[in-house]
Automatic annotation (TrEMBL):
Keywords: Isomerase. Gene3D superfamilies: Divalent-metal-dependent TIM barrel enzymes. It comes from the Bacteria. GO terms for molecular function: isomerase activity. It comes from Desulfobacula toluolica (strain DSM 7467 / Tol2). Residues 26-262 form the Xylose isomerase-like TIM barrel domain. The lineage of its organism: Bacteria, Pseudomonadati, Thermodesulfobacteriota, Desulfobacteria, Desulfobacterales. InterPro entries: Xyl_isomerase-like_sf (IPR036237), Xyl_isomerase-like_TIM-brl (IPR013022). This is Xylose isomerase domain protein, TIM barrel.
Amino acid sequence: MAVLPDKPFKLGTTSFIFPDHIIPNVKKLGAFFDEIELLVFESMPEEVLPSKDDVKKLLELSQKLNLTYNIHLPIDVSLTCDDLKKRQTSADMLLKVIDLFTPLAPSTHTLHLDMPKGIKTDKGNLRQLKDWEEKARQGLGALVSGLSNPGIISVETLDYPFSLVETLVEEFKTSVCIDVGHQIKYGHNLLKTFEKHQYRTSIMHLHGVDFSVPSGKDHTALDKLPEKHFRQVQFILENFEGVVSIEVFNLENLNRSLAFLSKIFKNIAPCV
C-alpha cells in the first residue's frame, strides 16, 4: 500500500492522554498535533470548569505551539430530557461553557443529543420516538437561539442511527461530528454517513473498536479496528479536510493509533 505524502486534515487528540488536568496535557501534547480536543465532560459543580485564567493560559499555549482547539461540551446536562425547565437550564449551561472558551476561537463545539435506553431498544414505538425528537428540537432550539452562528455546534453520531436527528441538524443548520468508532461499534453505515454529511462535518472522532470484548470496546487503539473497516476508514481520511481527533485516553492507545495512521500518511510520528 502506497503511503500518501501528507494528510489533508488537521490532526488532534484529547486533553486526557496523561492522567492530569487540561493544561499539563496541552503542554505535553501540543507540539505533536494541530489541534487538541478539550474534554469538558462535566459542568457541575461549576468549580470543575476551567477558570478564565486557565483559558488565558490555553490561549498563550495555542500561540506558542501554533495550536488550535475544539471543545467537547459537557455530557452531564441534557437537551433532550423530559423536563422543559431542565432542558432550558441545560442550554443555558452549554451557552456558558461556549462563552467561557470564546477567546480560544474553537474550531467546533461537539454536542451529544442523548437518547434514553428505553427508546433506543424500542425504536418501533413511533409515538415515543416522535416525543423524544420534539424534546430534542426544543432543547437544541434553546441552545442555538443563544448563538450567532449555529454552525459552531457539531452534533455527534452516537449509538442510535444518525438519521433520527438529521432533520434537526438541517433545521438548525448545525455541523456534524462523525464518530467513526461509534459508527463501527453500533453497526451503522459509516461510508453512507460520511457521503451524506461530509459537507457539514467539521470534526471526526477516530478510535478503534475491539470486538474480542463482549459488545465491543471502543475508544481504544486504531490497530484494533477489524480489517473489513480499514479500507473505509482510509478512504474517509484521504477525503476529509476538517479536524480528525484521535479520541483515546492514554499514551499507549494514542501512539499505537499514530503508528496505524503512519501506514497511510507520511509525517505522522509517535508522541514522546
